[in-house]
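Students often ask why we bother encoding 3D structure as a string. The short answer is that it lets us treat folding as translation between two languages. Here is a chain of 392 residues written in the first language.
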Amino acid sequence: MAVWATALAAVVAFMGIGLVDPILPSIAKGLDASPSQVSLLFTSYFLITAVAMLVTGFVSSRIGGRRTLLLGLALVVLFAGLAGTSGSVGELVGFRAGWGLGNALFVSTSLAVIVGAASGGSSAAILLYESALGLGMACGPLLGAVLGDASWRYPFYGTAALMAIGFALIVALLKEQPRPTRRIGLLDPLKALGHKGLATTAAGAFFYNYGFFTVLAFTPFVLNMSPYRSGAVFFGWGVLLAVCSVLVAPRLQARFGSANVAAASLVLFAADLGVIAFGSKAVIVTGVIVSGAFIGINNTVFTEMALEVSDSPRPVASAGYNFVRWFAAAAAPFLAPKLEEHFNVHVPFLVATVTCLIAAGVLFGARRTLAVVDRHDAPTAAGRAPAIPAAA
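And here it is in the second language, the structure alphabet:
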């Protein structure tokens, strides 16, 4: 029950990433803001999340996993509720930043808690976590659409209410987890990036995530649909992301190798972005949904490479990796509308196309260094243990 309570809260936490997608145009209209101003909702969220990666291990290794989860949930409940009361885009951006801090504390700790509390083995627990990630990414836009159709404020109130339920479940069902034998220092994640393989993976993930969050944060303005229609598009995107992350990526890795799979998927994602750049609205919708497949594969493969390529403890390697890649998630939502304002609507997607090709080149060039990932385990595709996500 403790595992399921944590997993349920994790689903809601991952919902928060895509929750605002269908209501971005509604927020812009309701607060009389430009697309570039509203896109700061993503920028502030992920910028704080990136920096918080240096803090989460430091905190959880000192106060314990349960208290870290509850602290993160409490911050999300507080700031998500306050976001719904915002009277200006500046207030909303600020509250979203506080939300990002809470989400970072919760999500970065929830995997370790699920694995530690599960009785069915770590592989089953990790699969449950990945499923929570995929389900949250798929359902976030849907929840945003359903609640946002009445008012752009309601999705924020809804998230606060759901996370409050998650808080109560964890208080009631989850016992304190054993603390790490070694405390994590604030600079440990940065020191871990001195490893060539981890640094290469983080660099590739940086360029890849620029493309990922160009799709997530910018296309709602290009589509300019009602919350329901936009939510349906990103729900389809999220379903493909979840399926390819959990079911497809491990099988491809087992057959072709992690670096090769990621590089090929990035080239296909770049081609998809190129089609989106010049497509009609129907083509853009199709391209966005299809991109979920490439994003799902890349998320899983990048995560496994980050956690297996170095000799650093997994929480430390994950924190360093995420510290780098979330900066791209913060940059893309801010730069894409600016590029449209200065050039045209095609340029943001073309820039994202180039960054994905750079990421593919980085991985392909380092494929020998990254081959160690595939030598950690050599199960068959059907029996391959799923990767531990570093999505937070």
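Translate back mentally: The chain has 17 helices and no strands. Keep this in mind for the problem set.
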